[in-house]
Amino acid sequence: MSKPTIFISHGDLDGMSATAVIADTIRKKCPETRLIFLFSQPHELDKALLQVPEEFEELYLVDIAIDTELWPKLSLILYEISKRGKIIWLDHHPSTLSFSDNLTKIGIQTILENMRSAASIARKFLQDTSDPSFYESIVKLGEASDLAIKLEKDDPLYHSLETLSIALAYKTREEQLRKKILSSWLNKKIIVPDEAAEAAQEGEKIYRELYQEAKQNIIFETDKLLIADLRNRRVYGFIGRIASVLAGEKEKPVILLTRLGETATLITYRAPAKNSYEKMSKIVADIARSYGGGGGHLAAFSYKVPSAYMENILKELIDATNSL
Fold first, then answer.
1. CATH code at 107?
2. What is the pLDDT of residues 46-99, one digit of tens each?
3. Which one of 90, 115, 144 terminates a domain?
4. How many domains does the chain contain in total?
5. Alpha-carbon gap, residue 147 to 7, rounded angstroms
6. CA-to-CA distance for 111 and 221, rounded, in angstroms?
7. DSSP string for residues in 95-156
8. What pLDDT is attached to residue 297?
9. Radius of gyration of the chain (CA)
10. The domain containing residue 78 runs over which residues?
11. How far apart are CA 218 and CA 220, in angstroms?
């Protein structure tokens, strides 16, 4: 049996879109290639790498930012795995780009570009796919999910974007659903499989309730920034989507606060697709980074901070915004 090609991807729509494009180009060249799909968050990548089999042909890491606090451990694991097969890292997050030389030194091939989505990087491979027109649609979905582009409501892909985004957010830890979606794209050229439609239907009501709660729990708003507090509500995997949609509706950057366990708060930031709001984005990132760890890119990032410091953090954010 031939050695498999492994993908460890971010399980959002952007990561899955980029994964599908690369996977299809591989299968077009060699139809017999075994493809294995795994999913991970940046802070859990070390655990995901332990699932890589002893023998493999290639390992692709797709749309996963490097967690800087994890890097010392991660670099050792990657170095050992690189002795067994080829590793390719495709990503657009600033933290990964900043480690480009480090990755090269331990033998990892990089496809790193400063773009707003991983799907935008994968776009360059469209003509190598089995169906460029179909995968153009998949790339657009990934780009729209990461706010690299905006799909209007009359766009034929808009409903698919809504359905897939809600399904993935509702089933945020369910790998099987992600594998079903990838299989549907790669094998059937169907954008929204039944499993995703059913998951979205279940999650739609919860998402709508959470979105309304976010708007009802705005604790600060100017023309430059909105902050909403959802720390007393379970948010499933909807927080990024709520922040993105609210940023688009309000046409300004949005911060959502959610609880992580008993002692931590997650600061989630999104800027509207049509403008990166670079100055505001940098202010928020710098303040959040000074208290905790996390990352992302200019228009979309999250930081985990100690809840005990939230009063100070909010004061700094509000003072900095008011001084603009």
1. 3.90.1640.10
2. 999 999 999 999 999 999 999 888 899 999 999 999 999 999 999 999 889 999
3. 144
4. 2
5. 24
6. 39
7. HHHHTHHHHHHTT-EEEE---S-HHHHHGGGGGGSS-HHHHHHHHHHHHHHTTSS---TTST
8. 79
9. 19
10. 5-144
11. 6
Token pair for 174 = 């369910």
Distance of CA 78 to the CA centre of its chain: 21
Contacts of 240 by beta carbon, 8 Å cutoff, 6+ apart: 12, 169, 268, 270, 300, 302
**Cα–Cα distance measured from residue 251 to residue 272, given in angstroms and rounded to the nearest whole number:** 6
Assigned token pair, 80: 């050992």
Instruction: Tokens for 182, please give them.
Output: 């990838």
Contacts 24+ apart (CB under 8 A), 44-50: 45/8, 45/70, 45/74, 46/70, 46/73, 46/74, 46/77, 48/8, 49/8, 49/74, 49/77, 49/78, 49/81, 50/77
* Residue 72 contacts residue 106 (beta carbons within 8 Å): no
Predicted model pTM: 0.84
Q: With contact defined as beta carbons under 8 Å apart, do 15 and 64 qualify?
A: yes
